[in-house]
């Protein structure tokens, strides 16, 4: 927990305080943090921050989520937090393309006793989403994958989201580069366009939270 905080404008001391005064990572989550650092050190910052995971677990419980979908699973931290928050008969569908990264998550899910709640599909996420029934039965969705496809994932999920359901979208502040006009790579431009799109979308209520690298919460009207 001594790494620099992922959240914008937080000192390490404040970050430690926030984590300590929420529901802190338990032994399984700490194992998953350490395992990710050891096995994919160059990409470990892709893992959601502990305070974000705690927020997602609490929100999932508050919503009484029966059916959840995650786009972009990486090593499974966010999936574990959502799965722990599901209603007793709830299920989480995870979409990812990496057997290597998600194998770390599978081990953590088994350790935590939630593997039976998670259905992992290794395939391009857009194909998995388009193959889902058109019924509006999703209670909660989380998008944390390739940024240029955010808008496409959002549209596929929104049409399947029940009224008052929630979509969470990660990295929407993109380490602050969304307001830096000198940064114009494709991912940054895609996030800016997505942020503008959902802020003006009259199908949802939208709030952008300064949690971790920016977490946008959308409620379907």
Describe what you observe in this structure.
It is a single chain. The chain is α/β, with parallel strands linked by helices and 221 residues long. The chain has one domain (12-220): Rossmann fold. The protein is built from eight helices and seven strands. The chain has a seven-stranded mixed beta sheet with strand order 3-2-1-4-5-7-6, with helices on both faces. Strand 6 (204-209) and strand 7 form a beta hairpin. Helix 2 (27-39) runs antiparallel to helix 5 and helix 3 packs parallel to helix 4. The model has no long low-confidence stretch (mean pLDDT 95).
Descriptive keywords:
single chain; Rossmann fold; alpha/beta; 221 residues
Please give a quick description of this structure.
The protein is built from 8 helices and 7 strands, in the order H-H-H-E-H-E-H-E-H-E-H-E-H-E-E. 40% of the residues lie in helices and 20% in strands.
Ranges where pLDDT stays below 50 over 5 or more residues in a row are none
Instruction: Note the beta-strand portion.
Output: 15-25%
N to C succession of SSEs: HHHEHEHEHEHEHEE
Structural class: alpha/beta
How many independent structural domains? Answer: 1
- Average predicted local confidence, pLDDT: 95
